[in-house]
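Before going further, learn to read the protein records used in this course. The integers have meaning only within a learned vocabulary of local backbone shapes. To see the layout at work, look at the sequence and tokens printed below.
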Amino acid sequence: MSAASTPLRDIDDAPPRDRVRVQGAALPFDLVLVLAILGLAGCSLTAIKYSTVDDITGDPTYYFKRQAIFFVVGGILSLALIRFDYALLRRARWWIYGFLMASIFAVKILGSVAKGAQRSIALGPFQFQASELGKVLIVIALASFAADRARRLNEWDTTARIMLLALIPAAFVMVQPDLGSALVYGAISLATLFFAGTPVRHFLALLALGAVAISMVLVIAPAAGVEVLHGYQKDRLTSFLHPSADTNKAGYQQHQSLIAIGSGRKTGRGTHATQTKDNFLPEHHTDFINAVVGERWGFVGAALVLSLYALLIWRGLRILTMAKDLFGAVMAGGIVAMLLFQVFVNVGMTLGIMPITGIPLPLMSYGGSSVVSTLLAIGLLQAIYVQGRMSASTKGRIMSH
């Protein structure tokens, strides 16, 4: 049975008297979701403060202060979205999609190169990474398209168009190269299909096509002299499949991460967290922030962070069921999938069960684009929650009369 075996009625199809006016609403936001976000923000700032104290000479709180600024800016934007009528986003879907593509192309033209990749645009002292904001924009665009074709979800044409809308920006992001974000775009597209109610046979066909595509990238294309993946990406995949083969080069990051997490044991090493303190653990404030938590605060600290993510995902799924229309439900599902996929891949790569792809840990890893974009997504979840409650309240009053 598909996810939408009992489809939601779109608010645009409802009688005028059942439509909800967002302006003037006084319903509270989801407090539990806010507490989960605040908890993750506190964990992020604490981990970054202690892991980067020696990174910038003369300024031990450099990364801490910047991350705090990112949370404040993202928090303000998130609060502004709570009372926003998200139905307006559906009407502006092609503008949103156009801005997504334009921002990705802008990175190719104006972006700065760092560590062999061109992923961001310098804006004064900060960096704007379009692929991070693109994760939220693609959720909105795909949810809008799925809602518009709600009565045609059984058609192959609908599935093909949704996948194409996601794969086009994903391909350009992958060229930057940013394989991690491209994979997130793919996960969002599949989640959109699932929550919209796409038949199972479509997913089976996509699975078969995916297997063929992977074979072409990893086997057929290299045999023909065409290299789709960059050298370091192939090395990371090889080191993941054979983790003990090369722990000094390609497998170095994952090997050091496992040492850090393993040495943390139950309650962590505290100030004796030498993997982080002595800089053995690379990218300790970004991709491998989970390993920092595991070494310094042990299983207890890591369990706390994962519990906060579980709470966040639970509230997101609950909001999905409360949405006033199909667009809101699919958008909430896309946001939940975006967060869950990133958490699973990032934590998995620090534990050695997933290859290294450069996907940040949402609301934990250092980075303004990731933090602000994620908080924008949380703001949309809150808007869906508020308007869903308003719709239920309005219908209840109509029924009572």
Observations:
- Residues 1-7, 9-27 have pLDDT under 50 and may be disordered.
- Residues 289-322 form the longest helix (34 residues).
- The chain has one domain: 29-198+230-390.
- Residues 29-198+230-390 form one domain.
